[in-house]
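Check the record.
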Amino acid sequence: MRIYRIASTQSEFCKLSQTFVDQQKLERLNEILSNMKVPFARKNDPRWLMRNLGIYNGDHPDFQEAISILKELSSLLANPMSQENADNWNKKWSQK
């Protein structure tokens, strides 16, 4: 698993330039959200998704996976990883 810096866009996931995330998890979250009832403008708002995703999608088969990915990404946004820490993390996990 490799960690990548989030590209700078207007989404809340991307506002913090020092945040690093697993690209596969972002892609999986986007795949799950594309099959759910979520307003297009809200797909990049993790706070809104955490609060409201279950309203119309609580019975979706991938609901719990989406919430776990959102929790992980939200924790990364709250505690951004520096470039040095990301490099160390990548070295550690590439050796396994």
User: Anything to note?
Assistant: Confidence is low (pLDDT under 50) at residues 1-10, 15-19. Residues 26-81 form one domain. The longest strand covers residues 3-5. The longest helix spans residues 63-78.
